[in-house]
DNA sequence: GTCTATACCACGATAGAC
DNA sequence: GTCTATCGTGGTATAGAC
């Protein structure tokens, strides 16, 4: 069951959208500080000064990218929820619910532009103003995962550390996973298998 | 069984050592590009120009830090091997071998200065010259993990993706784990439990 | 919405005295 | 081993024409 890429609604002008795209790519590749506005503008095919027609500052540009990355993740999570509503309560049913959400998070990382991946790699060292503005949005997304994991496991299993390891492990895959060479479905399956038994304490039902 | 912090032998002068310490902290906290030599020098209590008596360039300084970070990891892995030589072949014995190495890697991240953590967070976006110089050292460390995991699991279990998830998951903990608030032993136990059953397909023997 | 021109500053790095 | 002084470059950002 392969979910399709999500569509995040946007009212961006074509010019603004193009800047966001290029900037996210470069922030992901080189980091926020190393990627200069001149270089971004160059790759877009405009002058650096023109960026200020669309964004008030470089920090403002970064914030827009981080927000968009979170929007993609959130949209993917919602889509995964939709495909698993009314799922049963058997261990196999629970496992496929987890699998669907894992697949959705990874798809957000690799199938909807560089926004989500750029978010993951640049957030920690982003300027404090930007980080503070984004923290609430991140917290809301993490809370959805907390609810999901609590729902999937017995009431007495502490899901806090497991959630952090799961999200951290998936996000860390941006360091080595190449979506043009590896299969996203395979990666999702590996992640799910790796975490399912550790989470529930039961052997994995899948061969 | 708590392993003690490792000692990486060094011939550094006190002045050089102090610069390395401060620079690693700032690279970790703000990223390589964002941390300026002036700021580093300021925190050390010297002038920026004085750094060039000890390092030929900012890139040279980064490379020394990344190398030191790898040395700490490697030393920790070796120490873990030493404590588990002659271990048995039972599932419980294998599990504690994994646990010892997990504990060692996490200790390297949190108990021996900011070098290992700085390595983990700055490597991906480091200047190409620096990255290329460090890649062989990283590969050697990852190969040690590959050998270990192959040794711990059945011959037909593919350990490649599991190794990447395990190391990625542990390294990603620098984003949320605070060693002054949480227990390193607890974290190591969580990581081990989370991965052991997923790796072997057998239920975790620990309550 | 993009341009040219430019201000202003902080950066990495070098020279040479002590 | 550290200092002062300084160079050249490239960074973000602004002003104002088109």
Structural account:
The structure is a homodimer of 207-residue chains. By secondary structure, the first copy, chain A, is an all-alpha fold. Chain A has a domain at 59-200: Tetracycline Repressor, domain 2, CATH 1.10.357.10. The first copy, chain A, has helices at 14-30, 37-44, 58-83, 91-110, 115-122, 128-152, 160-172, 184-200. In chain A, helix 1 crosses helix 3 and helix 3 (58-83) packs antiparallel against helix 4 (91-110). Chain A starts with 13 loop residues before the first helix and ends in a 7-residue tail after the last helix. The mean pLDDT of chain A is 93. The A-B interface holds A 29-34, 121, 124-125, 161-162, 164-165, 168-169, 171-173, 175-176, 187, 190-191, 193-199, 201-204 and B 29-34, 121, 124-125, 161-162, 164-165, 168-169, 171-173, 175-177, 187, 190-191, 193-199, 201-204. The structure holds a DNA duplex (18 and 18 nucleotides).
Q: What is the fourth-level CATH superfamily of the domain at 59-200 in chain A?
A: Tetracycline Repressor, domain 2
- The count of β-strands of chain A is 0
Q: Quote the distance from N terminus to C terminus of chain A.
A: 17 Å
Oligomer: homodimer
Mean pLDDT of chain A: 93
How many DSSP H or I helices of chain A?
A: 8
User: Which structural class is indicated by helix and strand composition of chain A?
Assistant: mainly alpha
- The CATH topology label of the domain at 59-200 in chain A is Tetracycline Repressor, domain 2
Helix content of chain A: 55-70%
- Poorly predicted ranges of chain A: none
